[in-house]
Amino acid sequence: MKRRVVITGIGAVTPLGNDALTTWDKIKNGISGIGPATLFDTEKVDIKIAAEVKDFALENYMDKKEARRMGRYSQFAIAASKMAAADARIQIGTDIYPERVGVWIGSGIGGLGEFEEQHKKFIEKGQRRVNPFTIPMFIPDMAAGQVSIELGAKGMNNCSVTACASGANSIGDAFRVIQKGDAEMMIAGGTEATITEMTVAGFSNMTALSKNPDPNTASRPFDKNRDGFVIGEGAGIVILEELEHALARGARIYGEIAGYGASGDAHHITTPAPDGEGAQRAMKAALEDAGISPEQVDYINAHGTSTYYNDLYETMAIKEVFGGHANNLSVSSTKSMTGHMLGATGAIEAIFSLLSIKEGVIPPTINYETPDEGLDLDYVPNTAKKKDVQVVLSNSFGFGGHNATLIFKKYNK
Question: What is the pLDDT of residues 27-51, one digit of tens each?
């Protein structure tokens, strides 16, 4: 029998707030975290807006000297992980053996900003001015490594790098570790901090970013007038725990992770497979893994990037997988408020999925004004919806044809 896995702690750093519940409160109320870009020189690029983390006080979570030796994405991961561990009321080494706690934190790009900065120093001033911590500052696995060091987790330590599916894949892969009995607890999620000149220039030149200069309306998933995503940053971390272990210590349970599905498009490096064929397989695999019928799903937290093909093909995939029940589903994209946080986004959306179950609230898709042909599901336009939510399916897709689907359900004994 598969071991059951529940979520007992959450932590987040986002463009909407520096903790999970502040972020969730704004999400429920349809508040956007997108604004004028300040982290890069906007004179050099044609994009002037971004979803940036604001007023992040790293000294609350780590020693300033140590912080200078790590990338911004690792700093976010440490802060979110410490918040999640505190929320779970767990002290590693006291409440659980360190060897039975693992870390699996994904990042799509890692410390690109730190790499850009050090490369510029190398070109302008030579080798001697390059920071000796350059390599560990930018390699994507280092967030997981730093969290392991900071929290004392000595179990499996890993990192999924699957572009914008990294956070979701990391949670799903960590789920499997506990199911197999290789850990009692996993610190899992995703982190990203790549709002830089090069990132923005690259995404903009491939026409992936919105050219809408208005931060309040630029991210508009499923709307006919969508024209690309808004780049964001942040981190989302959950504490996954084997059910009996959680019950034995009287832990608070947000919900149960019931299913995980992943697939590859084998189609194109950036464009999803036609009709969302790969997404269909990921969703079907997750439903089968969870032993849940399509009719039992109440809400889908969509990948919903506000790009033409993603929103069209994800809608087509949902219709194919859910059949007539697709018309009864609520489907929303919280990227309309957070922007697209790349490798962090699937993990933060997992937290939104859990809080949707806990509070019986489905967050809205803001900026939805004009329906598009073929995009005719209930996208929860502009205003949150009260609903008894038992099961949530959360999608994350990434460049390279990576598809990841997580299923969460209300915990029942």
Answer: 999 999 999 999 999 999 999 999 9
* Residue 77 domain flag: yes
- The answer to whether position 318 is within a domain reads yes
Q: Which residues contact 383 (CB under 8 A, 6 or more apart)?
A: 30, 364
Give per-residue pLDDT as tens, 243-286: 999 999 999 999 999 999 999 999 999 999 999 999 999 999 99
Q: Is 0.90 surpassed by the pTM of this model?
A: yes
Q: Are 54 and 151 part of one and the same domain? A: yes
Known catalytic residues are 164
The domain total for the chain is 2
Residues 281 and 233 in one domain: no
What range defines the domain where residue 89 resides? 5-248
**Burial state string for 26-61 with b = 16 or more CB within 10 A and e = fewer than 16:** bbbebebbbbebebbebeebebebbbbbeebebeeb
Rounded Cα distance, 211 and 224, in Å: 15
* Residue type (1 letter), 93: G
Bridge partners of residue 18, in order along the sequence:
none
**Which 3 state secondary structure label does DSSP give 175?**
helix
